[in-house]
Specification:
The chain has 443 residues and is mainly beta. It has 4 domains: 93 residues, Sandwich (Immunoglobulin-like), CATH 2.60.40.10; 96 residues, Immunoglobulins (Immunoglobulin-like), CATH 2.60.40; 86 residues, Immunoglobulin-like (Sandwich), CATH 2.60.40; 91 residues, Immunoglobulin-like (Sandwich), CATH 2.60.40. Helices cover 15% and strands 40% of the residues. The protein is built from 3 helices and 35 strands. Strands 9, 11, 12, 14, 15 and 16 form a 6-stranded mixed β-sheet that branches. β29 and β30 form a beta hairpin.
Amino acid sequence: MELSQLPLVLLLISNIYSGQTEETPKATVTIKPAQRVFRGERVTLRCDINDEGVTRWQYGWYKDGSNKSFSKLQEYTFSSVTESDAGKFSCDGAEPGGSHSLHRSDEVTLEVSVPRAVLSVSPQSWLTEGDPVTLICEVNGSSTGWTFSWFTLSLSSVSNHYELLSDSSRGAGGNYTVSSAALKHTRVFMCTAEREEPVDYTEYSNKQLIWVTGVSPPVSLIVSPSRNQHFTSVSLSLSCEEQSNSTGWTVRRYTDTWRLENCSSSLWGSQTGSTCTIRDTSTEDTGVYWCQSESGEKSHPVNITVHSGVILESPVHPVTEGETLTLRCLDQNTSSPKLRADFYKDGSLIQNQTTEMIISTVSKSDEGFYSCKLPERGESPKSWISVTDESQSNLSHSGSQISVLHTLTSVLAVCPYLLVTVVLIFKCYRMRVGSVEEQETAI
């Protein structure tokens, strides 16, 4: 060390021990109104410096690590921010004509997203006539200033054109409520949202299918193999079965890919009578299937999922309270029916490493979304398992019981008249025979 540098070193050591070291101040970036905003909003970047020794600063703004400043103001404002304005921002400062300068601030991220409408249903999408249902349209990350519009597609429609509901404008909140669902409310719904300040709009939301059926539809959809989930590249049969007559029914479906169509419209689908066969299933065959007559009558729907890998074997139709529910996990790459799996309900583990999950006496509380997972093989999609009241399940039999009772009642009502008629005929016959005998005696 040179002798000329010694005084400077001694001064620095002295300042350290006396606590007089002077750290270079660091700038701080704040973003208003928030770091996560929607396209079209007004956003302000502000650079703050905590140094009382300087009254005026010259600022520099930088984006995504660039060394080229795009502004020298303390605040920089985007009057209508776009997705391209998003990025990581930092700032620094220097005293004009002075010796003070700043370390560059830490980077702060500005996220700009397109507002998206999200549609949900409460309490559920599968309804019986008279049930209440509410569709809820929300904009992700925002709750005020939006006006909502509703669009529907009828499953009886011959086209895939969505129509705007006449009473679609609902203002803030975005709820569309049907207090008493009717068969006509069986539709596919979507929503959009828009606002005036700042001006913005969303694209169409996700689709939600609302299904309303009568208590006892005249026909049932039979699925073979009998389960909700199916592997890819296999054959799947769907047929309409009615107690009296199975003719005149067509298997229809709604899928996200093909929307509304006959089952036989599938590339590998064919219709024979009231049976549709898909010879080579694919994930695009995932959707809702039902039977429909020429007059528009419909069966209860069946939600079919086509998946490659692991699937859940679960009942096609609702389970009645008190019955036994059995679930199994199947793997496309093995034919073994006894694979040990973990079973989940609504995302929570309820049984682990068992070959099948059995609920011996099903109750309404067992309703929910079920799935299974095979270690090192994968997890199945979720399937909704519905549990019906025993009294409701008996309604399907009550129709035939009432019909038989009505027939018996009619017969019993007619019996007295039949009896009187038989007696009169017998008496007339006796009188005629007696008259003939008298004539023969006289001769």
